[in-house]
Protein backbone atom coordinates (compact mmCIF):
# COMPACT_ATOMS: atom_id res chain seq x y z
CA UNK A 1 0.00 0.00 0.00
CA UNK A 2 2.85 2.36 0.79
CA UNK A 3 4.35 1.76 -2.66
CA UNK A 4 0.97 2.34 -4.34
CA UNK A 5 0.52 5.65 -2.51
CA UNK A 6 4.08 6.62 -3.44
CA UNK A 7 3.48 6.02 -7.15
CA UNK A 8 0.13 7.82 -7.03
CA UNK A 9 1.84 10.90 -5.55
CA UNK A 10 4.60 10.70 -8.17
CA UNK A 11 1.99 10.47 -10.94
CA UNK A 12 0.11 13.49 -9.59
CA UNK A 13 3.33 15.46 -9.34
CA UNK A 14 4.27 14.52 -12.92
CA UNK A 15 0.85 15.60 -14.17
CA UNK A 16 1.16 18.95 -12.41
CA UNK A 17 4.47 19.58 -14.16
CA UNK A 18 3.41 18.25 -17.56
CA UNK A 19 -0.04 19.84 -17.82
CA UNK A 20 1.09 23.47 -18.47
CA UNK A 21 3.38 22.37 -21.28
CA UNK A 22 0.74 20.09 -22.83
CA UNK A 23 -1.81 22.91 -22.63
CA UNK A 24 0.66 25.33 -24.23
CA UNK A 25 1.11 23.02 -27.23
CA UNK A 26 -2.63 22.35 -27.48
CA UNK A 27 -3.49 26.05 -27.21
CA UNK A 28 -0.92 26.97 -29.88
CA UNK A 29 -2.83 24.68 -32.26
CA UNK A 30 -6.30 25.89 -31.21
CA UNK A 31 -8.39 28.68 -32.77
CA UNK A 32 -7.83 32.06 -31.13
CA UNK A 33 -11.44 32.27 -29.95
CA UNK A 34 -11.16 29.11 -27.83
CA UNK A 35 -8.09 30.10 -25.83
CA UNK A 36 -10.01 31.98 -23.14
CA UNK A 37 -11.75 28.75 -22.12
CA UNK A 38 -8.43 27.06 -21.19
CA UNK A 39 -9.64 23.89 -22.89
CA UNK A 40 -7.13 21.09 -23.35
CA UNK A 41 -8.85 19.68 -26.44
CA UNK A 42 -9.77 22.31 -29.08
CA UNK A 43 -12.66 21.71 -31.46
CA UNK A 44 -10.17 21.49 -34.34
CA UNK A 45 -6.44 21.95 -34.90
CA UNK A 46 -5.00 24.83 -36.89
CA UNK A 47 -1.49 26.07 -37.64
CA UNK A 48 -2.69 29.64 -38.08
CA UNK A 49 -0.75 30.87 -35.01
CA UNK A 50 2.49 29.41 -36.36
CA UNK A 51 1.87 30.88 -39.82
CA UNK A 52 1.35 34.32 -38.32
CA UNK A 53 4.47 33.93 -36.20
CA UNK A 54 6.66 33.17 -39.20
CA UNK A 55 5.08 36.08 -41.10
CA UNK A 56 5.67 38.62 -38.32
CA UNK A 57 9.28 37.88 -37.27
CA UNK A 58 12.33 36.08 -38.76
CA UNK A 59 12.00 33.16 -36.35
CA UNK A 60 13.93 30.81 -38.64
CA UNK A 61 17.00 33.05 -38.65
CA UNK A 62 16.72 33.48 -34.87
CA UNK A 63 16.64 29.68 -34.46
CA UNK A 64 19.86 29.34 -36.48
CA UNK A 65 21.49 32.09 -34.40
CA UNK A 66 20.50 30.36 -31.16
CA UNK A 67 21.83 27.02 -32.41
CA UNK A 68 25.15 28.58 -33.43
CA UNK A 69 25.56 30.34 -30.08
CA UNK A 70 24.33 27.48 -27.87
CA UNK A 71 26.38 24.81 -29.68
CA UNK A 72 29.53 26.98 -29.69
CA UNK A 73 29.20 27.74 -25.99
CA UNK A 74 28.50 24.09 -25.17
CA UNK A 75 31.52 22.80 -27.10
CA UNK A 76 33.76 25.48 -25.59
CA UNK A 77 32.59 24.75 -22.05
CA UNK A 78 33.11 20.99 -22.50
CA UNK A 79 36.65 21.42 -23.85
CA UNK A 80 37.85 24.15 -21.47
CA UNK A 81 35.91 22.81 -18.47
CA UNK A 82 37.38 19.32 -18.85
CA UNK A 83 40.91 20.71 -19.18
CA UNK A 84 40.59 22.85 -16.05
CA UNK A 85 38.77 20.10 -14.16
CA UNK A 86 41.55 17.65 -15.03
CA UNK A 87 44.23 20.07 -13.83
CA UNK A 88 42.41 20.63 -10.53
CA UNK A 89 41.79 16.93 -9.93
CA UNK A 90 44.96 15.19 -11.13
CA UNK A 91 47.86 17.67 -11.47
CA UNK A 92 49.90 18.72 -8.45
CA UNK A 93 50.86 22.41 -8.37
CA UNK A 94 50.97 25.23 -5.85
CA UNK A 95 47.73 27.09 -5.34
CA UNK A 96 45.53 24.33 -6.78
CA UNK A 97 43.06 24.36 -3.91
CA UNK A 98 43.08 28.16 -3.76
CA UNK A 99 42.12 28.34 -7.44
CA UNK A 100 39.36 25.81 -6.85
CA UNK A 101 37.97 27.89 -3.98
CA UNK A 102 38.06 31.01 -6.14
CA UNK A 103 36.08 29.17 -8.83
CA UNK A 104 33.49 28.14 -6.23
CA UNK A 105 33.34 31.74 -4.98
CA UNK A 106 32.54 33.05 -8.45
CA UNK A 107 29.36 30.96 -8.41
CA UNK A 108 28.03 33.12 -5.56
CA UNK A 109 28.35 36.36 -7.55
CA UNK A 110 25.11 37.54 -9.20
CA UNK A 111 25.31 38.02 -12.95
CA UNK A 112 24.27 41.66 -12.51
CA UNK A 113 27.56 42.47 -10.75
CA UNK A 114 29.66 41.55 -13.80
CA UNK A 115 27.14 42.83 -16.35
CA UNK A 116 28.52 46.35 -16.77
CA UNK A 117 32.24 45.35 -16.81
CA UNK A 118 31.52 42.67 -19.39
CA UNK A 119 29.63 45.12 -21.58
CA UNK A 120 32.50 47.62 -21.38
CA UNK A 121 34.90 44.88 -22.47
CA UNK A 122 32.64 43.99 -25.41
CA UNK A 123 32.58 47.65 -26.48
CA UNK A 124 36.38 47.98 -26.17
CA UNK A 125 36.87 44.84 -28.29
CA UNK A 126 34.26 45.99 -30.84
CA UNK A 127 32.32 42.78 -30.32
CA UNK A 128 28.89 44.37 -29.90
CA UNK A 129 26.48 43.01 -32.54
CA UNK A 130 28.66 39.96 -33.17
CA UNK A 131 28.47 36.29 -32.23
CA UNK A 132 31.61 36.69 -30.13
CA UNK A 133 29.73 38.88 -27.65
CA UNK A 134 27.25 36.05 -27.11
CA UNK A 135 29.81 33.23 -26.94
CA UNK A 136 33.06 34.44 -25.34
CA UNK A 137 31.73 35.48 -21.88
CA UNK A 138 30.28 32.00 -21.27
CA UNK A 139 33.19 29.76 -22.29
CA UNK A 140 34.45 29.40 -18.71
CA UNK A 141 31.75 27.78 -16.60
CA UNK A 142 32.36 27.19 -12.88
CA UNK A 143 29.72 24.46 -12.57
CA UNK A 144 31.23 22.53 -15.49
CA UNK A 145 34.71 22.76 -13.95
CA UNK A 146 33.47 21.48 -10.59
CA UNK A 147 31.50 18.61 -12.15
CA UNK A 148 34.44 17.54 -14.32
CA UNK A 149 36.76 17.72 -11.32
CA UNK A 150 34.47 15.53 -9.24
CA UNK A 151 33.95 13.01 -12.04
CA UNK A 152 37.65 12.79 -12.94
CA UNK A 153 38.50 12.13 -9.27
CA UNK A 154 36.32 9.02 -9.44
CA UNK A 155 38.34 7.54 -12.33
CA UNK A 156 41.19 5.23 -11.16
CA UNK A 157 44.64 6.80 -11.19
CA UNK A 158 46.03 3.55 -12.61
CA UNK A 159 44.24 4.25 -15.89
CA UNK A 160 45.95 7.63 -16.19
CA UNK A 161 49.35 6.21 -15.21
CA UNK A 162 48.99 3.48 -17.85
CA UNK A 163 48.23 6.12 -20.48
CA UNK A 164 51.36 8.07 -19.49
CA UNK A 165 53.47 4.91 -19.76
CA UNK A 166 52.08 4.40 -23.27
CA UNK A 167 53.32 7.88 -24.21
CA UNK A 168 50.14 9.95 -23.94
CA UNK A 169 50.52 13.61 -23.09
CA UNK A 170 48.05 15.44 -20.84
CA UNK A 171 45.71 16.49 -23.66
CA UNK A 172 45.60 12.95 -25.03
CA UNK A 173 44.78 11.67 -21.54
CA UNK A 174 41.85 14.09 -21.30
CA UNK A 175 40.33 13.54 -24.71
CA UNK A 176 41.31 9.92 -25.46
CA UNK A 177 41.16 8.34 -22.00
CA UNK A 178 38.99 10.41 -19.69
CA UNK A 179 36.33 11.62 -22.14
CA UNK A 180 35.25 8.10 -23.23
CA UNK A 181 34.94 7.18 -19.54
CA UNK A 182 33.01 10.33 -18.63
CA UNK A 183 30.06 10.21 -21.02
CA UNK A 184 27.42 10.81 -18.30
CA UNK A 185 29.26 13.90 -17.04
CA UNK A 186 29.81 15.23 -20.56
CA UNK A 187 26.14 14.76 -21.48
CA UNK A 188 24.95 16.37 -18.24
CA UNK A 189 27.23 19.38 -18.55
CA UNK A 190 26.32 19.65 -22.23
CA UNK A 191 22.58 19.69 -21.50
CA UNK A 192 22.90 22.19 -18.64
CA UNK A 193 25.14 24.48 -20.67
CA UNK A 194 22.99 24.23 -23.79
CA UNK A 195 19.85 25.00 -21.79
CA UNK A 196 21.42 28.00 -20.05
CA UNK A 197 22.81 29.40 -23.30
CA UNK A 198 19.61 28.73 -25.24
CA UNK A 199 17.40 30.45 -22.64
CA UNK A 200 19.64 33.48 -22.07
CA UNK A 201 17.73 36.73 -22.68
CA UNK A 202 19.23 39.62 -20.70
CA UNK A 203 22.75 39.54 -22.13
CA UNK A 204 21.63 39.31 -25.81
CA UNK A 205 19.25 42.22 -25.21
CA UNK A 206 22.24 44.30 -24.13
CA UNK A 207 24.87 43.40 -26.76
CA UNK A 208 22.76 42.60 -29.84
CA UNK A 209 20.69 45.23 -31.66
CA UNK A 210 20.80 43.84 -35.19
CA UNK A 211 17.65 41.75 -35.74
CA UNK A 212 19.49 39.38 -38.07
CA UNK A 213 21.78 38.38 -35.16
CA UNK A 214 19.12 38.06 -32.45
CA UNK A 215 18.63 34.73 -30.71
CA UNK A 216 15.23 33.09 -30.35
CA UNK A 217 14.65 34.05 -26.68
CA UNK A 218 15.64 37.63 -27.39
CA UNK A 219 13.49 37.95 -30.51
CA UNK A 220 10.50 36.22 -28.89
CA UNK A 221 10.78 38.44 -25.81
CA UNK A 222 10.76 41.57 -27.94
CA UNK A 223 7.93 40.09 -29.99
CA UNK A 224 5.76 39.19 -26.99
CA UNK A 225 6.24 42.37 -24.95
CA UNK A 226 6.98 44.83 -27.72
CA UNK A 227 3.52 44.86 -29.29
CA UNK A 228 4.29 42.97 -32.49
CA UNK A 229 2.18 40.01 -31.33
CA UNK A 230 -0.92 42.27 -31.45
CA UNK A 231 -2.22 40.80 -28.17
CA UNK A 232 -2.76 37.44 -29.86
CA UNK A 233 -2.25 34.78 -27.22
CA UNK A 234 -2.08 31.94 -29.74
CA UNK A 235 0.91 33.50 -31.52
CA UNK A 236 2.70 34.02 -28.21
CA UNK A 237 2.09 30.41 -27.22
CA UNK A 238 3.34 29.22 -30.60
CA UNK A 239 6.57 31.16 -30.11
CA UNK A 240 6.98 29.73 -26.59
CA UNK A 241 6.41 26.20 -27.91
CA UNK A 242 9.09 26.57 -30.58
CA UNK A 243 11.46 27.97 -27.97
CA UNK A 244 10.95 25.05 -25.57
CA UNK A 245 10.97 22.14 -28.03
CA UNK A 246 14.78 21.85 -28.61
CA UNK A 247 15.45 21.66 -24.88
CA UNK A 248 12.69 19.11 -24.36
CA UNK A 249 13.92 16.91 -27.22
CA UNK A 250 17.54 17.05 -25.99
CA UNK A 251 16.54 16.07 -22.47
CA UNK A 252 14.32 13.20 -23.62
CA UNK A 253 17.21 11.68 -25.56
CA UNK A 254 19.86 12.11 -22.86
CA UNK A 255 17.94 11.93 -19.58
CA UNK A 256 19.51 8.56 -18.60
CA UNK A 257 23.03 10.01 -18.70
CA UNK A 258 21.82 13.19 -17.00
CA UNK A 259 20.40 11.35 -13.97
CA UNK A 260 23.39 8.99 -13.76
CA UNK A 261 25.90 11.83 -13.73
CA UNK A 262 24.00 13.97 -11.23
CA UNK A 263 23.88 11.00 -8.86
CA UNK A 264 27.54 10.07 -9.19
CA UNK A 265 29.03 13.58 -8.98
CA UNK A 266 26.91 14.28 -5.94
CA UNK A 267 28.21 11.40 -3.80
CA UNK A 268 31.85 10.93 -4.89
CA UNK A 269 34.64 13.10 -3.58
Topology record:
Layout: H1 2-28, H2 48-56, H3 59-90, H4 96-106, H5 111-124, H6 131-135, H7 142-153, H8 157-165, H9 170-178, H10 183-199, H11 202-207, H12 216-225, H13 233-267
Provide key terms for this protein.
269 residues; mainly alpha; single chain; globular; MetI-like fold; 2 domains
If you had to describe this structure to a student in words, what would you say it looks like?
The chain has 269 residues and is mainly alpha-helical. It folds into two domains: 46 residues, no CATH class; 213 residues, MetI-like fold (Orthogonal Bundle), CATH 1.10.3720.10. The protein is built from 13 helices and no strands. Helix 3 packs across helix 10, helix 7 packs antiparallel against helix 10 and helix 12 crosses helix 13. The longest helix is centred in the C-terminal third of the chain and has 35 residues. The protein is globular. The relative contact order is 0.14. The model has no long low-confidence stretch (mean pLDDT 88).
The percentage helix is over 70%
Regions with little confidence, pLDDT below 50 for 5+ residues = none
* Number of structural domains: 2
CATH architecture of the largest domain: Orthogonal Bundle
Radius of gyration: 22 Å
CATH homologous superfamily label of the largest domain: MetI-like
Strand content: under 5%
Mean pLDDT figure: 88
Please give the number of β-strands: 0
* SSE class: mainly alpha
CATH class of the largest domain: Mainly Alpha
Order of helices and strands: HHHHHHHHHHHHH
Multimeric state of these chains?
single chain
Query: What name does the CATH topology of the largest domain carry?
Result: MetI-like fold
Q: Count of helices? A: 13
Largest sheet: none
Span of the ends, CA to CA: 37 Å
